[in-house]
Amino acid sequence: MKQLAETDVQSTSTSLIDGMLSTRTIRRYTDDPVPDHVLRDIFFAATRAPSGSNRQPFRFLVLRSGPLAVQAKQLIAEGAQAAWDAKRARDGYDAGSGSDHGTAKARFAVTMQHYVDHFASTPILVLACLNRYRAPEYTEGASVYPACQNLLLAARAYGYGGAMTMFHNNVDPELRALLAIPQSTALCATITIGRPAGRHGAVRRLPLQELVFEETWEQPAPWASDPPGTTFTSAGPPPSRPI
């Protein structure tokens, strides 16, 4: 199985670096199903991730089209809608530049609304979980989120895309009861996976010198310069200098 997975991965056209630089959050999907052999290889890659003391406490619960999966998708979709409604109002997505349909703020609001409106019909919904072996503490995410990133990178390599959310939070008790998830297992992320209705592309972030320091805090590393042609994000808090 490992040899087959490695052969399949080598047949894809996306290099590791290219995948890391272009794995965007994908929130619009076609209705195409994800084949079993692709799911197998994506999750094989996800489970190769490191974890504390190599305990491998991460677990993935995959929801496709079974009766319980349909109920769980609808349940989380309701939580997603409530979470987005609250964020949209709290962060003023319909005010200021949000009223101009050509702005990044307005486009993001449209994308998010489409995402939550169609959440229940997502081809694949994944609950990323953590089997706790001690009391909850702040470092435990380090044993599950690397596996989530492996999952998204592997999906990208096969031409699929995903989005990692926390939309399960609003319906955690109901979800546990429906899917028989024990209280000792933490629900750490909800990940949607499917064939992108659009496309992947270059990921935009803050300039490298604002994120990477050398020797002392906020001392830019002289070698930390962005490649020519790099474009930067306008999302998030205002940057420390114009971009």
Structure description:
By secondary structure, the protein is α+β, with helices and mostly antiparallel strands. It has two domains: 2-203, NADH Oxidase, CATH 3.40.109.10; 206-243, no CATH class. Helix content is 35%, strand content 12%. The protein is built from seven helices and four strands, in the order αααβααβαβαβ. It has helices at 2-10, 16-22, 36-46, 67-90, 104-117, 145-157, 172-179; strands at residues 58-63, 124-131, 161-165, 185-194. Strands 1-2-4-3 form a four-stranded antiparallel β-sheet. Helix 3 runs antiparallel to helix 6 (145-157), helix 4 runs antiparallel to helix 5 and helix 4 packs antiparallel against helix 7. It is globular and about 55 Å long. It starts with a helix and ends in a 49-residue tail after the last strand. The model is unreliable at 1-11 and 237-243 (pLDDT under 50).
Summary tags:
2 domains; 12% strand; disordered C terminus; alpha+beta; 4-stranded antiparallel β-sheet; globular; NADH Oxidase; single chain; 243 residues
Percent helix: 25-40%
Question: What is the third-level CATH name, the topology of the largest domain?
Answer: NADH Oxidase
For the biggest sheet, the summary is: 4 strands, antiparallel
Mean pLDDT: 89
CATH C-level label of the largest domain: Alpha Beta
Global geometry: globular
Cα gyration radius (Å): 19 Å
Question: What letter string, H or E per element, gives the SSE order?
Answer: HHHEHHEHEHE
Number of helices: 7
Terminal CA distance reads 47 Å
Number of strands: 4
The unreliable regions are 1-11, 237-243
Protein structure class: alpha+beta
CATH homologous superfamily title of the largest domain? NADH Oxidase
Percent strand? 5-15%
In order across it, which strands form the biggest sheet?
1-2-4-3
CATH architecture label name of the largest domain: 3-Layer(aba) Sandwich
